Amino acid sequence: MTGKNELLERIEERYDGMSKSQKKLADYIRSSYEKAVFMTAARLGDVVGVSESTVVRFASGLGYKGYPQFQKALEELVSNRLNFIQRMEVTYGRISQSEILMSVLQSDIEKIKLTMEHIDQNAFETAVDTILNARKIYIVGIRSCATLANFLGFYLNLIRDNVVSVDTNSSSEIFEQIIRITEEDVIIGISFPRYSMRTLKALEFANNRGAKIITLTDSVHSPMNLYSSCSLIARSDMASIVDSLVAPLSVINALVVALCMKKQDEVVDTLGTLEQIWDEYQVYSSDELHPVSDKIPLHFPDQKKVNDQRRTEWEKQ
């Protein structure tokens, strides 16, 4: 894997055969992609000094069905480099306040559909078997991906033992928690643009120790795949300052279900034991509208009596 973005690869492969105008566009894209991502075809043509039709033909010449598809590829190029302000500009320049809810929901639906179309079923099955056969499982997710890591860790703990959700407060603490990782173990790294260097370094460390590596990320070009022996791809195009983690969460749900199917008897036994514990220690309230009968009595002073007592003492003075 080269790690180079697909759009840049297409430009590089076709550059020598481009016309003078197309080379001007290619040069601008390579040097100022963070500006080009916000531009319409007409605006990009004005900035570079070519016609709008030349821009459209340029996109088609790179193998895209039209300028909108080319612009999506451009977004992928810059997504892991955009700061929060630039992310907001991408979103706010395209949808109005009244369209936000439906637009975001529809976008998430499309991400799940795209994930369904492109995810590697063999890689998914390999991930399931790798998790089942590992001596110990480590899960790493930084920042917004910590939510996904914790969710996966919670359910893996119900399915099997020796599951470690790595605390990611600092880079040094990560290495302290995975220092005993071996070739019998697996580490699951979860990261999406902007990719976490701490997660990547943890995977590098695990790779050097011979551990198996599963990644959940957004693209085959993701740097997370530098060390992965099994990669699960889920779309997560940004929306404003928020990364969409809907499709990645669906993939995690599928992993959990597949693992449960493989270990049905053990999971049933574990859940049966947990149900007894939950009932005994009232983990879940059976009647949320009424107080529990064995509540601990709390004694607060009668404020009226306290005031009366103070008044009496004052009158005696």
The spatial strand order of the largest sheet comes to: 2-1-3-4-5
Say how many strands there are: 7
The CATH superfamily of the largest domain is Glucose-6-phosphate isomerase like protein, domain 1
How confident overall, as mean pLDDT? Answer: 84
Any idea of the CATH topology of the largest domain?
Rossmann fold
Radius of gyration: 27 Å
H/E order of the elements? HHHHHHHHEHEHEHEEEEHHH
Structure in words:
With 317 residues, the chain is an alpha/beta fold. The protein folds into two domains: 6-113, Winged helix-like DNA-binding domain superfamily/Winged helix DNA-binding domain (Arc Repressor Mutant, subunit A, Orthogonal Bundle), CATH 1.10.10; 128-268, Glucose-6-phosphate isomerase like protein, domain 1 (Rossmann fold). The chain has 14 helices and seven strands. The strands form two sheets. A five-stranded parallel β-sheet has the order 2-1-3-4-5, with helices on both faces. β6 (238-239) and β7 (242-243) form a beta hairpin. α3 (41-48) packs across α4 (52-61) and α9 (145-159) packs parallel to α12. The model has no long low-confidence stretch (mean pLDDT 84).
